[in-house]
């Protein structure tokens, strides 16, 4: 993700950790991540029943050892780039992996799970780790960290850490848009309200548990994801305006809620990593000649496509311009 706004938000969150001197240490002691495939670094590989796993090529081809890591990308994902930007030399391991132990816990932990979402029901439909369970794992992590680092050091790591929350796309694409009982019960505004309420509770709980720096991603332009264009685009090949409006509704509510959280907790630094704006610009821009198209992902095989595509977009995938490219399966 190369969004300037997102990077600015990141530095805003990290700024108070910077000293005047030479920058040898990472800007924050640890990065702790929650969410879906946009930030899953391999937890789903440890779930026997999870529907979505990234444990096969071409996933991981451009990553350190050129092999699948469980990341839903052929290279780095948002949390990796975040960690690089903050000056880390290693990445927090997936919490369910054997590597999440001992000194490795000092740089943070990653609880994210592909196909997870704000609404636990959505995650449960795909046997992903629900956000509620991710928080339970985080509590467990706190005691493990205290055992490794000592209580005082653990407290300072936990309050200095950057907490990343990146999820929610699945609540729309993997649930709401094809769930008649859900969309009868809630119109889009109320559904966004429900999801934002879950985020707000989650952020309050993190705060109570010691978090003081939280970054949350905005909803991406749902209508520009290739699977959305195929399913809801009515053959026009362009972004689906209705779905983008839904994302904007969500993002407005997210903005208000983040402002409210700031108001409630004076010592909480919280910012939105705006991924909507840069991805929307990218989708609206003409495809440039010679742009690196990266490694093609799997052919279209169902509901996991939107999440994977989201990842492709996050990795600066060129937008789909024609139905032909769509009919060739997933674009490159
Ligand atoms: C519809 O959504 C509800 C609430 O999220 C969920 O419990 C249910 O399983 C979903 N049904 C279908 C058919 O997807
Ligand atoms: C919310 O929106 C206002 C107006 O666009 C902006 O100034 C503010 O920074 C936004 N808040 C967050 C948390 O992004």
Could you walk me through the main structural features you see in this protein, from its secondary elements to its overall organization?
It is a single chain. The chain is an alpha/beta fold and 332 residues long. The chain has one domain: 3-Layer(aba) Sandwich (Rossmann fold). Helices cover 43% and strands 7% of the residues. The protein is built from 13 helices and 5 strands. The protein has helices at residues 4-14, 78-86, 120-125, 131-149, 151-160, 169-173, 180-185, 188-208, 226-232, 241-264, 276-284, 304-314, 323-327; strands spanning 31-35, 108-110, 162-166, 213-217, 269-273. A 5-stranded parallel β-sheet has the order 2-1-3-4-5, sandwiched between helices. Helix 8 runs parallel beside helix 10 (241-264). The longest helix is centred in the last third of the chain and has 24 residues, at 241-264. The protein starts with a helix and ends in a 5-residue tail after the last helix. The structure holds 2-acetamido-2-deoxy-beta-D-glucopyranose (2 copies). Residues 119, 121-122, 125, 175, 179, 181-182 line the site of one 2-acetamido-2-deoxy-beta-D-glucopyranose. One 2-acetamido-2-deoxy-beta-D-glucopyranose (NAG) is lined by residues 255, 258-259, 271-272.
């Amino acid at each position: 993700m190369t969004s300037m706004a997102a990077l600015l938000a990141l530095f805003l969150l990290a700024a108070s950790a910077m000293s005047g001197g030479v920058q040898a240490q990472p800007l924050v002691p640890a990065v702790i991540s929650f969410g879906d495939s946009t930030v899953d670094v391999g937890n789903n590989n440890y779930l026997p029943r999870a529907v979505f796993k990234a444990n096969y090529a071409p996933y991981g081809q451009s990553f350190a050892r050129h092999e699948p890591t469980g990341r839903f990308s052929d290279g780095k994902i948002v949390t990796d780039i975040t960690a690089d930007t903050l000056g880390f030399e290693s990445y927090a391991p997936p919490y369910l992996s054997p590597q999440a132990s001992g000194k490795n816990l000092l740089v943070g932990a990653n609880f994210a799970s592909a196909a997870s979402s704000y609404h636990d029901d959505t995650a449960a439909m795909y046997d992903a780790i629900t956000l509620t369970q991710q928080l339970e794992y985080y509590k467990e992590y706190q005691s493990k960290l205290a055992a490794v680092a000592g209580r005082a050091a653990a407290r300072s790591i936990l309050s200095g850490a950057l907490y990343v929350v990146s999820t929610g796309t699945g609540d729309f694409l993997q649930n709401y848009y094809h769930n008649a009982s859900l969309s009868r019960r809630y119109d889009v505004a109320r559904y966004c309200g429900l999801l934002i309420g879950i985020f707000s509770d989650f952020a309050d709980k993190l705060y109570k548990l010691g978090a003081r720096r939280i970054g949350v991603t905005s909803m991406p332009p749902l209508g520009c994801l290739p699977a959305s264009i195929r399913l809801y685009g009515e053959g026009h090949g362009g972004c689906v305006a209705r779905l983008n409006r839904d994302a904007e509704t969500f993002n407005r509510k997210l903005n208000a809620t983040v402002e409210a959280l700031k108001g409630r907790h004076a010592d909480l630094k919280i910012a939105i990593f705006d991924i909507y704006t840069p991805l929307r610009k990218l989708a609206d821009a003409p495809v440039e000649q010679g742009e690196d198209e990266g490694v093609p992902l799997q052919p279209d095989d169902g509901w996991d496509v939107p999440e994977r595509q989201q990842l492709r977009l996050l990795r600066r995938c060129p937008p789909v311009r024609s139905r032909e490219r769509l009919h060739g399966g997933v674009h490159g």
